[in-house]
Amino acid sequence: MVMVMVASREPNDALYHALHEHRSEWADRGVREVNIIGDADAPGPIAWATYADHRYADKADESSLPDEPGCEREPASMIR
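Predicted structure:
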């Protein structure tokens, strides 16, 4: 199971750490690992978090995942 939380570009890794406090219970519940990605790891534009989450889900079975998104995005600006 993959759980993805979308938030407001504020780092919040409380869930990650709370889950790690119960690591001894993971095997009994069918959990193999818990990883921190997206805004919880490094806040940024929603496009970066979405890309990181999508890439992680696509590559979840591979042994090594890239830390950096494979795209660049210019910051949005307000037009009056």
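Summary: The chain has a mean pLDDT of 75.
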